[in-house]
Design brief:
Bound molecules: ligand DP6
CATH class: Alpha Beta
Number of strands: 15
Largest sheet: 5 strands, mixed
Distance between the termini: 11 Å
Strand content: 15-25%
Number of domains: 1
Length: 337
């Protein structure tokens, strides 16, 4: 069967997904909005081969952990079931960025795997079906399928997928990610989703989200940066308030989940100071210490200079992105590769 290579970018949530209504099928409790990050890429090749005794998976030239391999095999199993084939597959995957730094490699990874895997299995799924399927691998992966800005509709039944809100060229937003040495995450996103409803503030967050989604959607469509930035910043803090006030059932010694490191807080303060000084920049945070800084194109150089001045003290590194493309096939060949 043909070897197919697909490329996908991780995405940055502007309105976050936090909490699931179905833990097995990765169905979220709330809608979310994201933008693909052009500066980071996962490239994945899949080839089904009837002579294999099991799936073979290589990530960045090495054998990945048992947990990662099992997750990939489970996803290939879904693809085999859809295509009605039984052959195992070889999967080669490469990330252009380090894993475990707070940029979701699982989103770009499962988006690329879904596209390359379905094509290699002879399927031609449309964007919605690809997004739905990618979601089963990692929830946020469904938002890495459409190009540019995406909105993931939580839905009420089994259906849940992301659709495009605006193409990448709609807005040349600049996203500067400041990341720190990879640290094993104490509490995974999965555990965070599970624990979220235990926060006494979770219901309030869900109620607030309707307004936040409408504000962020409109701000993206109208390229209203000041409105977008403030809404995105408050939304990130809302997620972290939930995390900090959640109870992790399996770890009763924890009073809450703290994803921040001292550098995270230093950057939050720096952003507020830069804005007071006239440099319009906003931050957002995911489930980790990395900080994503947003600015408009005309402020990119000033922001890079301002962050650059802090890096020797903070010890972080930078990844610069603009709105990125969605998942796409880059090579489709017959036979061996
Ligand atoms: C905080 O369940 O998609 O990034 O599979 O670990 O990448 P992983 O996480 P997932 O949750 C993502 C949570 C989030 C917010 C978001 O991306 O919406």
């Amino acid at each position: 069967m043909p070897a197919v290579t697909a490329v996908a970018h991780p995405n940055l949530a502007l309105v976050k997904y936090w909490g699931q209504r179905d833990l097995v099928r990765q169905l979220p409790l709330n809608d979310s909005i994201s933008v693909n990050l052009s500066g980071a890429t996962t490239t994945t090749t899949v080839q089904f081969d009837a002579t294999l005794d099991e799936d073979e998976f290589e990530l960045d030239g090495a054998r990945p952990t048992e947990k990662a391999s099992t997750r990939v095999s489970a996803h290939l199993e879904q693809i085999r079931a859809l295509a009605g084939i039984t052959a195992y597959a070889r999967v080669w995957s490469h990330n252009s960025f380090p894993t475990g730094i707070g940029i979701a490699s699982s989103a770009s990874g499962f988006a690329a795997l879904t596209l390359a895997g379905t094509r290699a299995a002879g399927l031609a799924l449309d964007s919605r079906a690809l997004s739905s399927l990618a979601r089963l691998g990692s929830g946020s992966a469904c938002r890495s399928i459409p190009h540019g800005f995406a909105e993931w509709r939580a839905g009420t039944g089994e259906e849940s997928y992301a659709v495009q809100l605006a193409p990448p060229e709609h807005w040349d937003l600049q996203i500067v990610t400041v990341y720190f040495d990879p640290q094993p995450k104490a509490i995974s996103s999965l555990e965070g989703h599970r624990a979220a409803p235990s926060s006494p503030f979770f219901e309030a967050r869900l109620q607030q989200l309707g307004d936040t989604l409408a504000t962020v959607r409109r701000a993206v469509l109208e390229r209203d940066f000041s409105t977008l930035g403030m809404a995105v910043e408050r939304e990130a803090i809302s997620l972290h308030l939930i995390a900090m006030s959640s109870r992790v059932a399996e770890q009763p010694q924890l009073s809450g989940i703290y994803y921040w490191q001292p550098q995270t807080l230093a950057l939050i303060h720096a952003v507020q100071r830069w804005r007071a000084e006239g440099l319009e920049v906003y931050f957002t945070l995911d489930a980790g210490p990395a900080v994503h800084l947003l600015c408009e194109a005309q402020n990119r150089a000033a922001l890079l200079e301002a962050v650059g001045a802090l890096l020797p003290t903070l010890g972080g590194r930078l990844l610069v992105s603009t709105p990125g493309m969605g998942a796409r096939v880059v090579e489709e060949g017959e036979g061996e590769i």
